[in-house]
Amino acid sequence: MSGSMSDGRRAEGEAEAQAQAQEQAQPPVQPQSQPQPLAQPQPQVPGQVQPPAVAVPGAAPVPSPAQAPLQKHHVHHSYMWLESVRTAFIVAVMIVIANFSTLVGLLADGELDGLSGGVLLALVGGGTLFLIVAVVAIVVVTRLVSYKHLYFTVGPDEFTLYSGVFNKKRVHVPYQRVQSVDQRATLLQRIFGVCTVAIDTAGGASNKAIVVPYVTKAQAEWLRTELYNRKTALTAQASFAQGATPGPVAAGVGTPVASGAPGLGAVDPAAIAAAATSPSGNVLDAGAEAWNEVGGLFAGPAQDTGRVAYEYGLTNKELFLAGLSNTTSVGLIMAGLFVGVLQVVSFLFDIMGDSANSMVEGALTYAGSQAAAWLIGGVSAAVVGLVLVLWLLSALGSCISYGGFKARRRNNRIEVEYGLLQHTYQGVSVDRVQSVVIKQSFLRRLFGYCELSLGKIDASDDSEDAAKKGSLAQQGLIIHPFVKMNRVPDILAGLIPEFADLPRETRPLAPVALRRAVVRRSVLFGSGFWLAICVVLVAWGLSWLGGQVETGALLLDAEDAYLVGLCLSFGGVAVVIGLVLAAILFIIDIVDAVLWARESSFAYNRRFMQVSNGGLSRETVSFPRQKIQFGCARSNPLQRRAGTDTLMATTAAGSGGTTTTLIDVAHEDALAWLDWVKPGGNVVK
After folding, report:
1. pTM
2. Rounded to whole angstroms, what are the CA distances from 161 to 156, 209, 543?
């Protein structure tokens, strides 16, 4: 065996020696520089993250193709001249008013007695025209320069807005942060077919909306559609990359959900189908459709923004009642008239000088006569007539502002547009809706109507048009300003079916809440009670003043004594009127407290919570359980003695969050709610 092993080793050694001899006999092979084969690109699956390329040793780096520069989208050229015209008009009005006030003051002081009227008008007119031309020139030059530096780009991952001449500003908005894309257009902008686009991002009211001014209507619709599509695509890619399976599809739009808010009635599938196929309308919708067809001078072609699955408008009755119920404009007009009257009176006093005092004394003397009663009655009737006229004008203005009102469901967004002269378009994604709010004022409660709105996360707007939004924006996204209560379940099921499955079994307040509400609402915070206290103090003061006059403690001449007597007479009438008004307000406060204690309640089920605060006006807020950011139950010493708590649930809507509060809930119900609201708490079907 040892001999065979040695023979094998000897054979292997001879084979290796022969191989080495052959290699030395062959000429050496020169190395050739040949490119290494590159890996073939694999097809990219949407949302799949590609692994980084592995470098091949000895291979030259392959340069990546340079990205093409993004297209710059400038705003419309009307930004230069249309904005200049608007600014020039405002400045001209301010200069004219300022010069008129200065002229009146100089005339009152007598400093222009030596100048003729023609010279004075020439000086004032020439100075005003010079200031207006100078300001307009500055504005036009500023707009021309800033226009070249105001544009936006739509990149693969984010939207970028560039602005500023000396102070450059660049705002980056990732598509996944876009929450809503709203647009507004004044009357002048609608005529020329341009609007202002506001891009709202996550972050609440502390966040600033990104405003793109003066884009055409077609460009605004394209931008809104593009931002939403890119956001949806990136969200789907992120979910796919994380290995998440698509979630369950929400209830189809128009699908009836067998539930509803307490007292709202059941959902009617036939009503939903009828509303989806035949949306309601009014006489002003024809004007809104004409605006949409004309579009404006530079509006551009209409854009396809997606399929509308559910839509409704306002009937003629709803439009008229919504206009009549808006009293904000009347208050503003009355305040403006009051300020105007004060300015006129001040102007008369400046012009008349010392002679105004004698006129006041004569007016007080006349007020004591019998003819003054007829004059006061006529003036009162004129004031009442003026208020009614202003109310009707305000209602007409509100109807015009609601003209063309449409609320619709488009894909996963809720859109609302309104305004016949000044157009406003608002939208919100369903996942950003924080709550559904049903508001009933006293008049709405009498007729069985309500205002239906959605609570959402709003960003503040630094644009000049932000102050022109009015109450429509301050109250959230109003999806119906004046609707019958029995239609609310159908609208929720068609427009936002995600909120249709609301709890029905309510939990009332503690029985002791009635007594506490009467004390709190009619005494501690009651307007009638404190008005009565003030009237009693005024009556005591007048009585003391009358006693001083009768006893001669106050030394008055005949004229002053007469004026004091008139004041005492009018003061006595005012005291009687104040006491009657205080009694009426006190009764109203008691009725409001009783209604609040009987109608206030809360409810919750597996997905939603609902809080109702009653009274002469009623508000019901419904919000998902997952939207609650903070929930607590607190009680003061008096509440602990009565066995009640105050529930507080905070969502992310509004500035710093919106807190829904309900006072005097039974302590046992409060503990059960705390067990429900905590993570992993009890589940209520």
Report:
1. 0.73
2. 14, 12, 70
